[in-house]
Each structure stands twice: as structure tokens, then as C-alpha cells.
Amino acid sequence: MHSQWQGTSAPPPQFLTVDMGEVKAFHGMPILPRQGDQSGKPNEVNVQISQDNKTWVDAGNADFQNNKNPQHVFFESGFKACPIY
């Protein structure tokens, strides 16, 4: 993820927060890497989940390939690490 509109790249770590609007089970995620060139693609991703946007629990880690293909990751413990109501 590149968090700057232009200029130099922002150094890691970079964060992206997605608010689902309600508590949902989290099992994994798809990613469509940057299509323009071979730079700027995520390779090591740590996913954390929260029910209150304050307390975060590791759902899992993902290693993505450096290509333009859609990729998916499934976190076996992701939906077990944080209680789902």
C-alpha cells in the first residue's frame, strides 16, 4: 500500500483500517496487486482485527507473490482470535 499521493514512498509500516459497520466473521481477504509495474506491491502483510477500533488481535500473516495476479489468503485462526457475536 502506498499512502502518499506523489513524491517519495511512505516507509513501512503502513496501515489500512476497514470498518465493516457491524461485527462480522473474518476468514481471509483477496488482494489485487498494483497493475502498473513491478513496484509498490505488498509482500508481507499482518492482519489484525478489532471490535472496538482500540483493542487489536492478530488474525494472521500473509506473504503475497510479486505479480499482477489476484491473490487470496485464508486465516484459519482469524475468526477464532476475536469472538464473533
Strand order of the largest sheet: 1-4
H and E string? EEEEH
Amino-to-carboxy terminus distance: 31 Å
Helix content: under 10%
The average pLDDT value, as a whole number, equals 76
Flag low-confidence runs: 80-85
Mass-distribution shape: globular
Instruction: Work out the strand percent.
Output: 15-25%
* Number of E-type strands: 4
* Major sheet attributes: 2 strands, antiparallel
Using the CA coordinates, give the radius of gyration. Answer: 14 Å
**Helix count?**
1
User: Structural class, judged by helices and strands?
Assistant: mainly beta
Please, could you describe this protein's structure?
- This protein has 1 helix and 4 strands; from the N terminus they run E-E-E-E-H.
- The chain has one helix spanning 78-81; strands at 28-31, 44-49, 57-63, 71-74.
- InterPro entries: FA58C (IPR000421), Galactose-bd-like_sf (IPR008979).
- This is Discoidin domain-containing protein.
- Residues 1-85 form the F5/8 type C domain.
Annotation keywords:
5% helix, mainly beta, 85 residues, 4 strands, 1 helix, two-stranded antiparallel sheet, disordered C terminus, two-stranded antiparallel ribbon
State the gist of this model.
With 85 residues, the chain is mostly beta strands.
SSE topology:
Layout (H helix, E strand, L loop, with lengths): L27 E4 L12 E6 L7 E7 L7 E4 L3 H4 L4
Antiparallel strand pairs: 1-4, 2-3
Organism: Pedobacter frigidisoli
InterPro entries: FA58C, Galactose-bd-like_sf
Protein name: Discoidin domain-containing protein
